Structures are given as structure tokens and as C-alpha cells.
Amino acid sequence: MRKRATTIYDIAQRAKVSVSTVSRVMNGHDRVHPELRARVQQAMDELRFRPNRVAQSLYHRRSNTIGCVLPDITNPYFAQLFLQLEVGASELGYTVILGNTTSNPDLEETYLRNFVERQVDGLLLLGGATNHPHPPEAQRQSLRELAEQLPIVAVNGDLPGIDILSSVSSDEAGGMGLVLDHLEARGHRQVALLGGHPEVTSSLEKLAVYRERHPDAPAEWVQFSGLTIDAGGAALQRLLDAPGRPTALVCINDLVAAGVLNAAQSRGFRVPQDFSVVGFDDVFLTQVTSPPLTSVNHNYRELARQAMTALTLGMEGGQPERVIRVPTFLAERQSVSEPQR
Fold this sequence. Notes:
Order of helices and strands: HHHHEHEHEHEEHEHEHEHEEHEE
Oligomer: single chain
Largest sheet: 6 strands, parallel
Number of strands: 12
Radius of gyration: 25 Å
Number of helices: 12
Structural class: alpha/beta
CATH topology of the largest domain: Rossmann fold
Distance between the termini: 80 Å
CATH architecture of the largest domain: 3-Layer(aba) Sandwich
CATH class of the largest domain: Alpha Beta
């Protein structure tokens, strides 16, 4: 037979205190004598009592949960960032519920509605509408209404004109500058940009920095082919078929860079002897590619810490800075050398 669940009456009897004292201890009230608090805690331990979190959330009108929406958990960039956000939330006593939208706006809308119904305390939005230069007006209106109900932090994205708490982002433009500075210091003046998507703000931001630094680069040296490994291979193919040959290739992310490295090897090219390659995001792939890949790191732990700090401040009624930028840094490996020609 199933064992009867322990109740606060059992705890009160074991600790020889009133039920109201047990209730005050469980709900974190300060006005409980330390000796009584210790007796209640000991009784809870002896009886292996675990508080009913649903009941507590109803009492405090807090669920101690945070909703997190992102487009693709199989992408190592989002997986790495989500991991740090989840660790940071756990340290603060929150549980994170993930909504993986598979880049489907309708599914994103469904997750957001479900999170409101679940009464999460706040939302973290990664990618999707927050990383789109011109989200549809219907989607913007839905997000406006959502921001009136819940504290929202956009991580590595933003929703201009919508009253979210904060946009907490790594300095991707600064990271692109670090890459180009590094290549220039190694003697590279002919640099191409591979990968990216015209409807992703981070791609456009990196492109703007590249155009500023290399205004005379041939049009063929910019290949906005996408964000995947296959996109990297396709971009390199088109680049090699075009006139002229850069000495360094900057990739929009590490997946594109991995595709470039694979395609280069299959065509008999050597990296970095024939051309240098740099990625962006510094995911785990960078350490297992051949050669190991120089890449820009988003400073994930600090990015997650700043995002969680902003969100918890907002959930407690405070007002964080509307825009927070976290410095990136360059992780140097063996995919860059001086030009050999």
C-alpha cells in the first residue's frame, strides 16, 4: 500500500510546536525563534518532508520558474548559452522551462501563451523575433501584450519599440572588430566574409563592421549563404569559383567555419597554409576541427549572469538598464597564420 504523505501536522507533532510555527518556517518568515526553527527543520529532515511547491507558489504568488524560448537547441551556440542561463537560474532558486521553437513563429507564439498560463515569473527570449530586423506587425503586437504581463529580457537580441525589461547582448560588433584586428596584425589585407542571413540582425551587424573595414572587397567575397555547416561548404565553393582569392576567411559562426574547413580539405586546400579561417561563437566544435579553430567567444557565463541579474531585478520590481553589452574575447587556435603568398 502507498505510504501516507507527511503533513505539517506531523511535523508540528514531531517538533512539539504549533502548526502555525511550521507554516511560518516553511514560508520563510523571519519572526521565528532560532531554536524553534531548528526543531522544525530537524523534524522535516527526520520525516523526509518536501514542501509542496505548487502550494507555496499559490501562497507567495510566485512560481519560481522562468520561461526560455529559443529557435534551435541542437545549435551548439544556443545549447551553450542555455546551459549557462539554466545554471545561473538554478543558483538563484529558479527552474527554467525551455520552449524550443524549431524556428517556427507559430510554435513560438504557442510557447509564449503556455508560459503565461503556467504563470512563470519572467521570460528569457533568445533568437526568433528578437534577432529579426523586421518582425511581422502581428508578432510585434503579440509581444507588446506579453511585455505588459511579464518581465522579459532579450538575450543577444532586442525588441525595439516594445517595453521589455532589457536587452542583454554580447558585443558582437566588437567581436568582429577583434577578428579583423587579429587578421590584420598577422598580415591579412584580403579578407572574405562567409555565411550569414539577411533576416538575422547579428549577421547584419557583423557585415556592417566588415564593410567598414574592407570597403573595397569584391562583391563575391561576401557570401550570405546561411548559418549551417552546409552553408559553409556552399559559400567556399562559390568563393573559389569567383575571380581573386582572399588570404583569410571570416565565418559568421562556427558551424559555417566547420563547413568551410571540410570543403577546403575535400578540395585539397590546407588551412592555414592556403588561407586562414576564423569562426564566431567558440562552441565545442572549435576544439575538435582540423585545425582547431580561432573563434570569438561570447563570454557566455558573464552574458548569462547579466541576463539573470536583469531579469530577477525586474521580477522584484526594479528597473535594470534597457541595453546591456557584455565584452567578447578572441580564443586563438591554429587556424590562422601569416599569408603564405
